[in-house]
Amino acid sequence: MATHDQYIGGEWVKGESYTPNINPSNLAESIGEYARGGKNQAEQAIQAARDAAAGWGAGGIQARADALDTIGTEILARRDELGRLLAREEGKTLKEAVGEVGRAGYVFKFFGGEALRLSGELTPSVRPGVRVEVTREPLGVVGIITPWNFPIAIPAWKIAPALAFGNTVVFKPAELTPGCGWAIADIIARSGIPAGVFNLVVGKGSVIGDAIVKSPDVNGISFTGSVDTGHQILVEATKRHAKVQLEMGGKNPLVVLDDADLDVAVNCAVNGAFFSTGQRCTASSRLVVTDGIHDRFVDSVVEKLKALRVGDAIADDTDIGPVVDQAQLDQDLSYIEIGQKEGARLACGGDRVTRDTEGFYLSPALFVDTDNQMRINREEVFGPVASVVRVKDYDEAVDVANDTDFGLSAGIVTTSLKHAGDFKQASRAGMVMVNLPTAGVDYHVPFGGTKGSSYGPREQGGYAKEFYTTVKTAYVTG
Ligand code: NAD
Predict the structure, then answer these.
(1) Mutate to test the pocket of ligand 1, among 100, 224, 382 (most ligand atoms within 8 A of CB)
(2) Does residue 463 carry a pLDDT above 80?
(3) Which residues are catalytic?
(4) Distance (Å, whole) CA 173 – CA 426
(5) Edge-to-edge strand order for the sheet containing 365-370?
């Protein structure tokens, strides 16, 4: 069985222990043994990143651009192979996994270009004879802490801008999906970047993540994950004035109006709520549907869900892969029970499914007759579970859509230009989709939300520099 080490200071370093990476489609299969480290290894990685920071930050932008382009090129060239690894360790279908790897490759290439485009401002002073220069500088060492559900795209959209803008990186992937994290490290290690600029430390969040968050040598922390962990990180990091960027949960509404094209509405709902096994922060977990189309919409969604094939992530005919692990499956099943106890009606799904191999298979569950105050409509389930909330008209739909502690993504399906235009303004979410699923975003534009979903500057696109650089104002005379 292949073992996979930590990458610290330009060397592959043995882990303090090794853990098998189990395939959620087939619990008898291990994808490999992956290193786990303790606080010591986190500190070594932080020190290596600290030592490399000045050189990389002052180094040429051509070297950064070339390295990122090389990394992106290799990821794209290996997208089928890496997609297979991703599908086997995380459980999304092969098609979705290959798509995610492609996104990661393009992200690196995009930020290769961004490294060359970092500009400043030269402006006259209010004092005669003085000029003002506004420039952007790297933060220094950035700690990157990521979740399991997009194990290559999320690391890519944090690591690439961090390196592009001259920072060094300590990267801690989720314990459940170290394979993609290790693959990225392996590619970066061969890209020609100097030792210490990028470091990989796999291990527990409460140990490695905690060490990164609390270290005075880490200048910025970019985190994606659950709300609870995000809050803990926010409190610890701000205590020592570190820069923090958090992307957390969602309870994203998809509004379906009477005038919607039924096929578009059903496709948006099924794709947005259930693809990637519903394990997306942008998943449409609340389907807010007006009276006139409600029954037709529910019947069509149920019919479509019953036809979807739940199975092994890498099988050709699979539409929905397994849930990622036992803990997530238990959480999904517990919310299905909670929903029923609250008085919601399960229109379909929510059953454990058996296949040739033992895996965490769950049929997609649709709740109807739900109220927006129910726990299943307030708390993130993070599985193949969605609810329909019936409303009387557009105005009520907007109120329900915005009545949530989260604000990541929101969608509307309508043929009314007036309502589509109004919804883009009225929605309190950070991303709004018109006649498109709430999940599925481009890599070259900003990503992020409001309220409990996000904290700090937006990720991705040109906006990424807001987090990964700090601004300096210089006054010059003569
Ligand atoms: P999680 O919060 O359990 O873990 C995320 C990461 O934080 C992991 O690497 C984990 O090891 C680490 N961690 C855990 N405790 C820590 C601590 N005390 N200090 C520092 N790091 C710690 O989340 P998860 O279960 O891996 O991911 C699922 C969650 O991620 C969902 O809530 C989902 O909505 C969210 N998510 C959000 C986005 C977004 O962009 N908004 C995208 C994907 C996933």
Answers:
(1) 224
(2) yes
(3) 247, 281
(4) 36
(5) 345-348, 365-370, 385-391, 286-290, 253-256, 409-413, 431-434
Give me the mean pLDDT over the 195-216 stretch. Answer: 98
Predicted local confidence at residue 235, as pLDDT: 98
CA distance 448 to 463: 11
Angle at 363 between CA 437 and CA 149, to 5 degrees: 55
Best residue for ligand 1 mutational test, from 177, 201, 226 (most atoms within 8 Å of Cβ)? 226
> Which pLDDT does position 377 carry in this prediction?
98
Residue nearest atom 40 in ligand 1 by C-alpha distance? 247
Domain borders along the chain are: 3-248+453-477, 253-434
Banded model confidence at residue 2, pLDDT cuts 50, 70, 90 = confident
Q: What whole-number distance in Å separates Cα of residue 278 and Cα of residue 270?
A: 10
Distance 224 CA to ligand 1 centre (A): 5
CATH architecture of 253-434: 3-Layer(aba) Sandwich (3.40)
Q: Please, what CATH class does the domain formed by 3-248+453-477 belong to?
A: alpha beta
Task: Quote the tokens at residue 22.
Answer: 């189990």
Neighbour tally for 48: CB within 10 Å: 23
Are 230 and 261 in contact by the 8 Å Cβ rule? The answer is no
Spacing, Cα 119 to ligand 1 middle (Å): 33
Tens digit of each residue's pLDDT (9 = 90 or more) over 261-281: 999 999 999 999 999 999 999
Same fold, 3-248+453-477 and 253-434: no
Inform me whether the pLDDT recorded for 448 exceeds 80: yes
Burial class (CB in 10 A: 0-12, 13-18, 19+), 205: buried
Residue 478 has pLDDT above 80, yes or no: no
Residues with CB under 6 A from ligand 1: 145-150, 172, 174-175, 205-206, 209-210, 213, 224-226, 229, 232-233, 247-250, 281, 380, 382, 408, 453
Residue of 228, 229, 280, 282 to test ligand 1 pocket, by largest number of atoms within 8 Å of CB: 229
